Amino acid sequence: MTTSLKRLPGWAKVVSAIVLVLVVLGAGLQLSLLPGLRDVFREDTHDRTGPTLLKSIQDISRYEAASGNFQVVVDLEKDARFLPDALRGTRTLYVGAGTVDAYVDLGKVGENDVKVNKDRTSAELNLPHARLGKAALDPDESYAVSKQRGLLDRLGDVFSDNPNDERAVQRLAARHIGDAAKDSELTERAEGNTTSMLKGLLGSLGFKEVTVTYGS
């Protein structure tokens, strides 16, 4: 082995030495240097949010009786009348997912809406019709699929404080979800669930006959 190494030309010995040094350095980099580089370029997250302020408290007499989950794909396009889309215009494809609750407002039930017999075995309740709450978008399930903007709009985004403003499509998605909830059977389901809840509750209190109507 020693004889063969001595027979190698000078340039081959230099190359071999360089390769050996690179191998050693490579192993050293993997063991020590790379972890250090990761620490240098590591991104730390700091939550410096201030204290949350309680602005108001509201007493709620609603019985949330049903909830619907909806999803809509919003295709919102804004064009300039006298300019081509490549120069001025936006088009956003947005998937909006959200919920709408249906409730019965028991706070509107008056004394004349509840009738109980003397033996407290029969009760008649007249409740207001179920209503729909506002559509609430789920930020974890809602997202923009694509955004197309003209040249002038892209230039404007550079100087804008909020270039990724999605409030327009979010409002549109919430409106479509609210409209879909109106065409669904949420209110009917809410009234049926409220009836079942009240019959079970009054039945546990000894009432044998419970009649629930809606329309006040």
Q: Please, could you describe this protein's structure?
A:
With 216 residues, the protein is an alpha+beta fold. It has helices at residues 2-7, 10-41, 151-158, 167-182, 186-204, and strands at 62-79, 89-105, 114-116, 122-127, 131-132, 136-137, 143-149, 209-214. It is elongated. It starts with a helix and ends with a strand.
Please supply descriptive tags for the structure shown above.
3-stranded mixed sheet, 8 strands, 216 residues, 28% strand, alpha+beta, 5 helices, 5-stranded antiparallel sheet
Q: What are the low-pLDDT stretches, counting only 5+ consecutive residues below 50?
A: 1-5
Radius of gyration: 34 Å
Strand elements, count:
8
Helices and strands, in order, run as: HHEEEEEEEHHHE
* Number of H- or I-type helical stretches: 5
Helix content: 25-40%
Structural class, by secondary structure, is alpha+beta
Task: Categorize the overall geometry.
Answer: elongated
Mean pLDDT: 77
The proportion of strand residues reads: 25-35%
Give the biggest beta sheet. 5 strands, antiparallel
Q: How widely separated are the two ends?
A: 105 Å
